[in-house]
Amino acid sequence: MILLVLIASVLILAVTIYQFREINRDYHENRMERKEEQIRQSIDLTIQKTTYPVTTENLGLIFKEEIYEIAVVQNMNFNIYSLEGELIKSSRPKFENDPISLCLDPEILNQLDASADKRYVERNKAAGDQYQASYTYIADRQFKPIGILNLPYFEDNSFNDKELNEFLTRLGGVYFLMFLLAIGLAYFISKYITRSLETISDMMERTDLTRRNEKIHLEKPGEEIEKLISSYNAMIDELSLSAAKLAKSEREQAWREMAKQVAHEIKNPLTPMRLSVQSFQRKFDPNDPDIAEKVAEYSKTLIQQIDTMSSIASAFSSFAEMPAQQNETLNVVKIVKLALDIFNEDYIHFIAEEEEIIAKLDRTQLIRVVTNLVKNAIQAIPEEHNSPRILVSVAVDGEMVKISVADNGIGIGKEVEDKIFEPKFTTKTSGMGLGLGMVKNIVETYKGTINFTSQPGKGTVFCVKFPRVASMRTIK
Question: Keywords assigned by UniProt (predicted)?
Answer without folding.
Answer: ATP-binding, Kinase, Membrane, Nucleotide-binding, Phosphoprotein, Transferase, Transmembrane, Transmembrane helix, Two-component regulatory system
